[in-house]
Amino acid sequence: MPRRLRWLLVLFPLWAAAQNGSPVEGQLLNSVTQAPIAGARVLVRSTRTQLTYETYTGPDGRFQIPLVTPGDYLIVFQAQDYLPLPLTDPATQVFHVADMAAPVHFQEELTPYGVVSGRVFDGNGRPAVGVRMEMLKARGGGLTATFTDGDGHFSVGTLAPGAYVLLARPMLPGSGGDEKHPTVLAPPKAREGERLTWPATYYPASTERSGAQTIVIHPGSNLTAYDMRLHAAPLVRVRGTVLDDQGKAAGGADVTLHSSEPLTEPEARAQSTADGSFELADVCPGDWHILAEVKRGTVTWRGSAFVSVARRDVEDVPVRVAPPFAIDGFVERGDALSMAGDRPPMTVQLAPVDGASARRVTAEERRDGSLRFENVYAGSYRILALGTIVGYYLDSVSLGFGDVTGQIVDLAPGAGPVRVVYRSGAGRTVGSVENGWGSSVVLVPQEDWLVGPPFVRTVAAGMDGHFDIGSLRPGDYYIWAFDRVDPAALTDPDFLRNLVPPAATVRVAQGAVVVAPNLKVTPWPE
Question: Whole-model pTM?
Answer without folding.
Answer: 0.80
